[in-house]
Amino acid sequence: MKVVQVPTCISASHRNMFLPILGLVVFGFVYRWYKERKRVHNKADKYVYITGCDTGFGNLLAKHLDQLGFCVIAGCYTEKGEDELKKTSSDRLTTIHLDVTDSESVSKAAAFIKTLVGEKYLWAVVNNAGVGVPSGPDDWLTIEDHKSMIGVNLLGVIDVTLSVLSLIKKARGRVVNVASVFGRITTFGGPYCLSKYGVEAFSDSLRLTMGHFGVKVSCIEPGFFKTGLTDVAILQNSLTKLWGRLPPDVKDDYGRNFIDNSLALCEKRINQLADGNLMKVVNSMEHAVSAVYPRARYTVGWDAKLIWLPLSYMPSCICDRMLRINSPKPAASVL
């Protein structure tokens, strides 16, 4: 039997091609790490306006930036949220009542901020306020369901940003918008993903147009984290209410098992995927505010990086099939 030997020069040439590429990749990561370590100076002179500070990411970010020495303006929806935040923060932190769905409330907050910051202007706005319900199959929802969520998650972001954008332009500051990895891929029905796609588009538009004035725009894209948006009881209660108001013919299309399976899957997915370390998101938000060279996008969470973002780059036929395999099937399904 004749043994065929592979010329050693082939493997050597492959090695010679691979090593420079590997070197460039390593250099790129090291350079990025070194560059992103740089932080802005004079934090005590920089005002940061944050929405949705009653609980969750916004509440933690307000406290974190306060500890770092920034002058924080925390927008809260409730008096309770304001009072509790004041008790755990320094005198640098100022709370204001804010309803992002009410343009009058947004305008009052902007007028107050303009007086407060004076000639220091506004360094950053962090649009964090958001809601997660109602969500469900599209034919379970009304236009009012869409309006209520889009009013908070998208129109609220736009309204708040535009109300203080002139102050940020003068400071050559930052706009930080909290979107979601589900602004890159739609995995469930309803207006949530729609609203987050809109935040992504608004952020891209701002980044392009405001870059001429030295304003940097970042978009935060969390996966599943244990916040009020992923509270199993709230999500299940919302689904149950949506099911309860459906006409009989739509219920027949889906079948009684569909709602039971959906409620069970909701609890299973949240327990499997929701990360309890909220500081992963808060640290990304802080970097977007304080880094000399912030990123345009921060994808946060192991599920976002390893599941949802890679899935978003797949062909639609493959992506759709994978998502349908792992979702409840309606009784009248033709698939």
Question: Can you describe this structure?
Answer:
The chain is globular and about 65 Å long. Helix 6 links the parallel strand 5 and strand 6. The model has no long low-confidence stretch (mean pLDDT 92). The protein has a single domain, classed as 3-Layer(aba) Sandwich (Rossmann fold). The relative contact order is 0.11. With 335 residues, it is of the alpha/beta class. Helix 2 packs across helix 10, helix 5 packs parallel to helix 6 and helix 7 runs antiparallel to helix 9. It is built from 12 helices and 7 strands. The longest helix has 29 residues. Strands 3-2-1-4-5-6-7 form a 7-stranded parallel sheet, sandwiched between helices.
CATH domain class name: Alpha Beta
Provide the helix percentage: 55-70%
Report the biggest beta sheet as strand number plus sense, adding barrel if it closes: 7 strands, parallel
Number of helices: 12
Family: Belongs to the short-chain dehydrogenases/reductases (SDR) family.
GO molecular function: oxidoreductase activity
Pfam families: adh_short
Keywords: Membrane, Oxidoreductase, Transmembrane, Transmembrane helix
